[in-house]
Amino acid sequence: MKKRILMLIVLLGIGFVLSGCLASQDKVFTIDDLQITLTDDFKETDQDEGFTAYFESNTIGVAIMKETFASLEVIDLNSESTIEKYIAAVQSAGNVSYEIQNKDNITYFTYESEIDGTNFYYMTAFYKGNDAFWIVNLFCEETNKSELENSLMNFAKSVKFIKE
C-alpha cells in the first residue's frame, strides 16, 4: 500500500513538472521600435504580402505593418496626425468602413472574411509609434473566435514602443 501511494505521488509530481514545462511562455518580439508579447508558440514567418512582420501559432496569426510618417506625407498624414485620421485613410484606401472601437487604450476594429472557404475573425489594432503608424492585424478561424478573442485583445494590449 505504501509503495502504491509513493508511486502515485511520484507520478503526480512528474505530471506537474511536465505540464509546467509544456505550458506556453510569454515571448517578446521586437520589430524596429515596436514590441509585442505573444507566446513561444509563435514563429516568425516570411510572407510576401507587404507586411513588416508576420507571426503564426497553430491557432492565431499576427500580421504587422509599419507605415512611416514620411511615406504617408503624400496623403497629408504626418507625425501630427491622429490615429483616427490614419484609420480613416486606411478604410478609404481599402474601400471599407468598420466601426472603430476603443477598449483598454486600444483603438481597433473587427471584421470577418472568408479565404479559400475558411471564415476568419480579424481584430485590427492601430498604434502611433515614434516615426510611424502601425497596424497589428490579429486573426483566427471564426470557429475559434469565442475561445481566442480575449487572447487577441491581450496580445494587442501588450504592444509597446521603445523610446528612441
Describe this structure in words.
The protein has a single domain (25-161), classed as 3-Layer(aba) Sandwich (Protein Transport Mog1p, Chain A). It has 4 helices and 10 strands. It has a 7-stranded antiparallel β-sheet with strand order 3-4-5-9-8-7-6. A 3-stranded antiparallel β-sheet has the order 1-2-10. The radius of gyration is 20 Å and the shape is globular. The N and C termini lie far apart (65 Å). The protein is of the alpha+beta class and 164 residues long.
Topology as a string of helices (H) and strands (E): HEEEEEHHEEEEHE
Examine the coordinates and then state which fold CATH places here, giving the name of the CATH topology.
Protein Transport Mog1p, Chain A
The overall strand count is 10
* Low-pLDDT residue intervals, each spanning 5 or more residues: 3-8, 10-20
CATH superfamily: Mog1/PsbP, alpha/beta/alpha sandwich
The largest beta-sheet arranges its strands as 3-4-5-9-8-7-6
Helix coverage percent:
25-40%
What is the C-level CATH assignment? Alpha Beta
Structural class: alpha+beta
By DSSP (H or I, 4+ residues per run), the number of helices equals 4
CATH architecture: 3-Layer(aba) Sandwich
- Count of domains: 1
What Rg, in angstroms, do the CA atoms define?
20 Å
What gross morphology would you assign? globular
Short key terms for the protein model shown above:
Protein Transport Mog1p, Chain A, disordered N terminus, 164 residues, globular, alpha+beta, 7-stranded antiparallel β-sheet, 3-stranded antiparallel β-sheet
